[in-house]
Structures are given as C-alpha cells and as structure tokens.
Amino acid sequence: MRIERIELRLLRLPLVRFFETSFGRIHERPFVLVTVTGDGVDGVGECVADANPFYSAETTRTAWHVISEFVAPLVLGREFTHPREMFAALHVIRGHNMAKAAVEMAAWDLYAKQQVAPLCRVLGGADARIESGIASGVSIGIQDSLEELGDRVDTELAAGYRRIKIKIKPGWDIGAVTLLRERFGDIPLMVDANAAYQLRDAAHLAGLDPFDLMMIEQPLDYDDVQDHAVLQTKIRTPICLDESLHTVKVADEAIRAGACRIINIKPGRMGGHGQSIALHDLADGHSIPVWHGGMLESGIGRAHNIHLSTLPNFTLPGDVAASRRYFSPDLIDPEIEVRADGTIAVPPGPGIGVQLVHDRIASATQERLELRSSR
Description:
Elements: E1 5-21, E2 24-38, E3 41-47, H1 60-75, H2 86-89, H3 97-114, H4 119-123, H5 127-132, E4 134-135, E5 138-140, H6 146-158, E6 164-167, H7 174-184, E7 189-192, H8 202-205, E8 216-217, H9 226-234, E9 239-241, H10 248-257, E10 262-265, H11 267-270, H12 273-285, E11 290-292, H13 299-308, E12 332-333, E13 343-344, E14 355-356, H14 358-364, E15 365-372
Parallel strand pairs: 5-6, 6-7, 7-8, 8-9, 9-10, 10-11
Antiparallel strand pairs: 1-2, 1-15, 2-3, 4-13, 12-14
C-alpha cells in the first residue's frame, strides 16, 4: 500500500439539535475529512477533533496543521504492507492522536478496498457480530429542563435504542437520574460526566449508587488515573474511563490500579484502529468489557465505528446512533439507521462500505488542501 495523495477538507455541518455536555452547548460540528489515495483507490477518514480544545487539546485547526505539516510528509510515497504499521511510523510526533487517527483510519479503508473486503473483516470482527449487527445505545446531552430530558429519553427508547446515556455535571446529576428511574424503571442507564467532578465529590457521586447504573463515565480529570482508582473504592457504580485512556500503556496502568471496570474505546482518542484493537485486546485479557464511544461523527466516521464495534469484546451497546439524530442530511447514502431491535447493520461493501454524497461534501467544505507525493 503506497499513499500517493492526501486531501484535507474542513467541513462544517449544522446539528439537528443542540448538544450540551459539561463543556458547554454546541449547534454545529466542524471536522476535518481526510482522503488518502493509492493505486487509484480512495480511503476516507474523519478527524474527530472539535473547534475548541475542551474534550482534548486537539482542535480542527491543530489537526489540519499537524496532518499537513508533519503526518503527510511521513506517509506520502512510503510503502506500507499493512495499515497497522502507520501508527509506529508516526511515533516521532508526540500526541496529536486525533490527527494521526484520521489518516490511519483512511489508510485502513483504502487497504480494505484494495483487498475488496469489508473493513470489519480486515479489523478482525467476529462473524456473529458482523452478521447480526452491532447493539446501539444513545447519548443524550444536558437539556433545558428535566421534563425535556424525560421526553428525549422517551423518544429514543421508542426508536429502539438498547441503552440510554445522559450527560451530567454538578447540579444536573442525581435529580436527572431520579426522574428517569421513576419514569422509565430499570432501563439500561449510564451517566457521563466528562471530567466535571473532583475526588472531594466522592460522597455526592456515591449518591448515584442506589440507581443501579451500568457505569459512570469519566467522573474526574481528563488526565487522571490514581484519583479514579481511589474513587472506585468509595462508590459501587462501575467507573468507565474515556478521556484518561489516550494510550494503551496508560490503559494498562489504569486497569492494574483498579481505576476502571469498563473502558470506552474511541479510535480518534487512541490514534486509530490499530491502537484501538490493542486496547480492545488488553481489556479482553483482563476480562474488562469495552464499548464504542461517539464524537458526533458524520456517517463517514460513524461507519468506521460500526466496523470496529464488531470486535468480540465490544459487549456493551455503544454510542453509534442513527445519522438522523445529528445531521439531516448526512454525507453518506444510505444513511446509518437503527433497526427496530436496536441494532445497526454492518455496511457490507468494501472498506467502510458506504457511498459518499460528494455534492453534500462540497457544500459543507470551507477549506480544501491537496498534498501529493514527490517520491
């Protein structure tokens, strides 16, 4: 596999509905679309960095800079026997996993298309999961009122989603969970704090224990492991780590410290599919279940997530939801749909298996850059 061309597009899509976390509220989603070309075949990847450095230090602008100035020179014109080699080829660049992942995942799509195989097969997906589809959960942001939150959950349950996740922050936590348990009973329910709490809030977070939640995701700082380990000794609700686990090594340390009982995998956070597979295997070896997180991706990134979610240790419903929840229209056709049983079919075609709608991509494009190999 030889990458001869890289195209970057800065896209901006309006969200169907605002999305609010402890970081704030957004109404649109900017992202960098990466296309890599080799032997006349294109592979695509989506950089999940946002406009602001809130979830991570990376932004769409830093990703554009790092890809164009540093990643591209290291991969253009270079021969790779397999896309799993790419992350190691970028080791001289410290951090910037989202920028690396966008190119690496595009290379996986390219490689799978060259092999005329669905990406899930190249990644090592389980036959049963590929055939049955992946279980889908949904993430609901902070709403303007508890009544609106209840109505949103009602709508998503009616759509078939197998698990509800709500965003929480101080002042919007126990009251929200109380409402949902009273209104919907024992539905599969989890909460995501996006690092909104501190260890001194342990007694307050223990107030969530009676509600039998599947997990609390990333309650403490984005770069913390040890305090999460201490917190887990003070609460019964399983802790799931997200932002803290940006490398396989850190994940190994967190598991050994007892900082998490469940792991969220996002390939953008990890640096691509290769590192995500390594984290999946590490967690599996410790009997820790994993699930696939979401970053408000378009259908392009969402298709990548579906294929990765076919690996056998993705045993919990992920945040890979239908396109219509976020973008109307999406950038692919047909769009990602959730079936009545709460599953999403794995696109069967080569690579990510979805068709890009190029006029929609062109309409959403704000900037474009093309880089070619000189070798």
